Amino acid sequence: MRLLVTGGCGFIGSAVVRRVLRTTDWSVVVLDKLTYAAEPRALEETAADPRYRLVVGDVTDAELLARLFAEYRPDAVLHLAAESHVDRSIDGPEAFLSTNVVGTFRLLEAALAHWRMLSEPERSRFRFHHVSTDEVFGALAPEDAPFRETSPYDPRSPYAASKAAADHLVRAWWHTYGLPVLISNASNNYGPWQFPEKLIPLALTKALAGEPIPVYGRGEQVRDWLHVDDHAAALLAILGRGRVGRTYLVGARAERTNLDLVRTLCAILDELVPNSPHRPHARLIRFVADRPGHDRRYAIDPARLEVELGWRPARSLEEGLRATVAWYLAHRDWLAEMRARYDGRRLGLGGAPTAGAEAAAAGTGRTEPEGTER
Ligand code: NAD
Ligand code: DAU
Which domains does the chain have, with CATH numbers? Predict the structure, then answer.
């Protein structure tokens, strides 16, 4: 099997590529633009494998895509390339529309042209799998049931809207042209090699430096945490055995408030770095102005994936977090190096006035003053 992985040098894409090369005899071509979020070193172990090739390029580049499909003739496409950070989408949405919407459109067009030229057996085996997010379903209230495959779309950030648009395009290419697609919507991933703009590696970077750990609002928002290797295993199960045209939700039933999660990280650090001058690390937690339009809660019901494909996460959140903190401790140099790409300053306040107005109108949101946790 020949697999084309877009965004394969990113956090999740690299975990998928490592898994494919370790556990299958497939060959893999990665198409990646190598944006700030990419880390080719996450694929160092695969570099010498003759089944692996990296093509540096943009998913919006139709000519490059046509050449790549003609030359490589993939049996399947796993589409992960995206702008992925909500806060950056608030400050600069255009890149999100370009990569996530136009990029998905161009990739669908290239895949369709390729698929139409295949023989009948090849056509029925071909898959286009779009890797998407639970954020397309909007925000849950604390008492709501978790998202299911039938949950209505209600994206609320520019990032979520761009991913929702991409999901709709992918479904349209299935219904209209018959391109054999799959869509998966996953919850918050964590694990090794995550760029330290996201909550867990950012909190660890700050804590290790003895700097304030920013928690948006009062830290009451809830996220449902999924280890990146469990996600990668789910993606391969869906790609291999998922029913064409279907959506699968991926989550590990591990909801936590942001404040609980950050406190847990601090406690693990206290234990694993007993001689740290910053212990107890929870003292570094600071409440800061909330994210504009901050979604209150995401939660996934993964029943379809469990029942239909027999997928289960291989680890609990507690085990996964411990291993993740240990990994970042062993890669402190990498974290420090990443500060040259992103110095840890607050992102995503660009849309504050509008979002504040919306929250006031809905009578739900509030922007907290900065303060220390008590
Ligand atoms: P990431 O930001 O770590 O990596 C994205 C990768 O895509 C990078 O290697 C980047 O260079 C590449 N890329 C960006 N723009 C490109 C372009 N125009 N052309 C080619 N390559 C480009 O993202 P991630 O966290 O690994 O997420 C991967 C996918 O999974 C995304 O589609 C994201 O929406 C989705 N997802 C992420 C999470 C999460 O918690 N991280 C959860 C659910 C779904
Ligand atoms: O739900 C899936 C999504 O999870 C993916 O589609 C996105 O690509 C991924 O980035 C992630 O989105 P979030 O916005 O949930 O992730 P982030 O790590 O940015 O934030 C997690 C929560 O922590 C969120 O409620 C905001 C909060 N937060 C974040 C940062 C960076 C803080 O309290 N402080 C911070 O400094």
Answer: 2-188+226-250 (3.40.50.720), 199-218+255-298+316-372 (3.90.25.10)
